[in-house]
Amino acid sequence: MAVTLSERAARHVVDYLAKRGKGIGIRLGVRTTGCSGMAYKLEFADETPEGDEVFTSRGVTVFVDPKSLTYLDGTELDYAREGLNEGFKFNNPNVKNECGCGESFNV
Predict the structure, then answer these.
(1) The pTM is what?
(2) Fewer Cβ atoms within 10 A, N terminus or C terminus of the chain?
(3) Least confident window among 56-60, 67-71, 93-97
């Protein structure tokens, strides 16, 4: 089981943590919500969350809670710019359907 970052995502996280002045990595997860059932959570981690799985990808520490790892296994986190919008994009091979707005998914 693993979660990885693209080069662009890793660079963005490293730059953001440097500007922020603190943090040891990012924490990924899923929550129940939205029209398709689940939505991604991403937050910057200042300490190691107890019980989380820990991965290192391109020099960035990634924390994932055990319940979310089932849904996130094999996911690559990318950072994309599309037109005027930019942000993190989850390339998750487990997703079966996404809602029309792209905010939620199901597996």
Answers:
(1) 0.85
(2) N
(3) 93-97
